[in-house]
Amino acid sequence: MSSTAVPEKVALTPPTTVRGNVRGYLERLRGGDLGAMPAVFGLVVLCLVFAVMRPVFLSATNFANLFTQGAAVTVIAMGLVFVLLLGEIDLSAGYTSGVCAAVLAVVLANYGLPWYVAVGAAMLTGVVIGTVLGTLVTKLGIPSFVVTLAAFLAFQGLLLVLVKEGTNISVRDQTIIAIENSYLPPALGWAFFAVCVLGYAAVQVVRARRRAGRGLAADPAAVIAFRVGLLVVLGGLAVYVLNLERSRNALIVSLKGVPIVVPIVVALLILWTFVLRRTAYGRHIYAVGGNAEAARRAGINVDRIKISAFVLSSGMASIGGVIAASQASSVDPNTGGSDVLLFAVGAAVIGGTSLFGGKGRMLDAVLGGAVVAVINNGMGLLGYSASVKYIVTGSVLLLAAGVDALSRKRAAASGLR
Amino acid sequence: MSSQPVLSIRGLDKSFGPVQVLHDVSFSAYPGEVTALVGDNGAGKSTLVKCIGGTYSIDAGEFHFDGRPVQVHSPRDAADLGIEIVYQDLALCDNLDIVQNMFLGREKRSGLVLDEATMEEMAARTLRDLSVRTVKSIRQLVSSLSGGQRQTVAIAKAVLWNSKVVILDEPTAALGVAQTAQVLELVRRLADNGLAVVLISHNMNDVFAVADRIAALYLGRMAAEVKAADVTHSQVVELITSGRSGELGLKNGNGVTA
Predict the structure, then answer these.
(1) Chain B nearest CA to A291, separation (Å)
(2) Cross-chain residue pair A289–B144, CB shorter than 8 Å
(3) Domains and CATH numbers, chain A
(4) Residues sharing a CB contact under 8 Å with residue A135, sequence separation 6 or more, in sequence order
(5) A278 and B113: CB-CB below 8 Å?
């Protein structure tokens, strides 16, 4: 690797060639850093299996269903990534989403206020919940596992109070309903796709050129082209399929386009990826998760970072609750309950976020959310009962956590820790 | 070499409750020189360092920095003066890379966004100035580094900020022979670059390999501050174990209070 000709450059800059990039990736894999590999692999295998056993799995209607069914869990999982990065856990995220959804429904139905006030109230509820949880964990030093387990129970009760011990509050606001039940016009779907691709390509190219201009190692053009190409192919395929006519009788009602929830999830993904990767705040979250004592000595306010992570987790759970309310067009005592939390934690971990803290990306939650949605949807198509679905999803979560623990062990064995 | 100490402390007292840990300690560090701070376990080395670093508040005593009297009340004050301490456990984040660790808590940004390019350049320049050639890439995760390389990163992190005094707490304690040599070479180079280096060590070979001056603590008192060239190996050992060695060290009665 290192030559004596230009020691300064070669010695201190990362690989800049395509081969260097590929080799770096393989080295990370071998060293136990599997990243998103298991999730992508699992997604491909699951899709193949379900497609072979139930061809309807690949239909345009079912493809659109995957997005609307997986959205709420994915959004909650994205919030959980912040908490998991710190090596903490938020077991109450599911019922937090339920409580926030109930607040939304109550404000809409009982007070008749406009949708944005209701969404604001729901999100504010999430922020308050997160602040309380984070404060209990940091200032009192109660383990997050216990605090959020207690909150898990208490919020179940709070949700019952809000829905008057078991009634079902319907959500009739058209804007809220539209999130999960309306679709972008096909042209707008393509425009959204184009903006995403061009934006991504622009960011990548500008960064590479700026770095190259300062004599720093930059990603080679081929690698950037590969990434952008991948986005074009996968994103293009998804938008194309979503824009197919899904209605049985298109003359009566046309049903096509990208679900409105998709751009919302993509926007959240971009926002939080930016925060985690490009801001000092995001860097500090990784630092606290990796070595809280080192972070403290570096002058980082560890308590504030932890509280903010719980606020973000609960805040994202509130958005997940709004999406869930939209999907069901109502809120009942089960909103955000039963399997939602398990699925959300599963989504983050399956995607490659470590339960031990310090490792994970926002994209993990989305990939893992896709895996969970595919399992749920495919097994439903295969006619399995809820019992089997629970057992399989539980096993997948255990498998993902096992992969996480094993890769950590492997990293330790290969001297990478 | 230079005669003016960059950091000088006089009459430092420090107690924890009823236990007085440091008695009237004076200590100086000179630019361009390595000062070894030696002493047995419990002699007060770590306490002295934490007082200098602002982690502990002092009960009495004067601090002079660059000839000016100063007050150090917090680690932030010490860092502002240009005093950096590299603790034994290094305080690095395994899950971050070298650049990220070196700038932890003091990230360069342009607006809201981290200025990775500038940080990478500064980190590369610092490592180059220290003639560090052992790391493959400054974008390597710290988890993939050896013990010596980690020590190097921790030291580079300390000197990145134009610091004037760098205090190293047992930098070679956990290292093998080759890596110890590398780190000692780096310690020497820091001093040759004009920094005042304070090296805490138990290892006499390390001390005599790099130190210009030796300060020996004995039961919370400064037994002697001498030039390394003026003393022998066994004299320093005597200073550490009994507080005196012939003419050097604490006078009987004046010193030990059991």
Answers:
(1) 5
(2) no
(3) 58-182+259-413 (1.10.3470)
(4) A307
(5) yes
CATH class of B1-82+164-258: alpha beta
pLDDT digits (tens, 9 = 90+) for A56-91: 888 989 999 999 999 999 999 999 999 999 999 999
User: Closest-CA residue in chain B for A302?
Assistant: B105
Which segments of A243-301 does DSSP mark as H helices, in order? 261-278, 280-290, 292-297
Contacts of B105 in chain A (CB under 8 A): 284, 287, 295, 298-300
Q: Which two tokens stand for residue A212?
A: 């190259």
Which of B89, B106, B117 is nearest residue A211 as measured by Cβ atoms? Answer: B117
What ipTM did this prediction achieve?
0.83
pLDDT digits (tens, 9 = 90+) for B46-82: 889 989 988 888 899 999 998 899 988 888 888 888 9
Check CB contact of B36 with chain A, cutoff 8 Å: no
**Residue A1: Cβ-neighbour burial (10 angstroms; 0-12, 13-18, 19+):** exposed
What are the residue ranges spanned by the domains of chain B? 1-82+164-258, 92-162
Chain A residues within an 8 Å CB radius of B89: 293
Which amino acid, residue B34?
V
Q: Are residues A11 and B135, on separate chains, in Cβ contact within 8 Å?
A: yes
- Which residues 106-125 on chain B approach chain A with CB closer than 8 angstroms? 106-107, 109, 112-114, 117, 120-121, 124
- Residue A279 to residue B94, Cβ atoms within 8 A: no
Whole-angstrom distance, CA of residue A309 vs CA of residue A256 = 37
A91-100, A169-178, A405-414: which has the minimum mean pLDDT?
A405-414
Q: How far is CA A6 from CA A3, A11, A16, B122, in A?
A: 7, 8, 15, 18
B96, B117, B124 ranked by CB distance to A290: nearest:
B96
* B87 interfacial to chain A (CB closer than 8 Å): yes
3-class DSSP state of B189: helix
Contact B209, B215 (CB under 8 A): no
Q: pLDDT per residue over A288-328, tens digit each?
A: 999 998 898 888 899 999 999 999 999 999 999 999 999 99
E strands in A332-405: none
Partner-chain residue, chosen from A8, A11, A283, that has the shortest CB–CB distance to B100: A283
- Per-residue burial over B193-204, b if 16 or more Cβ lie within 10 Å, else e, is eebbbbbbbebb
- 3-class secondary-structure state, position A157: helix
Please return the burial class of B96, using the count of CB atoms within 10 Å of its CB with bins 0-12, 13-18 and 19+.
buried
Query: Among B69, B21, B20, which residue's Cα sits nearest to residue B49?
Result: B21
Burial of A328 (0-12, 13-18, 19+ CB in 10 A): middle
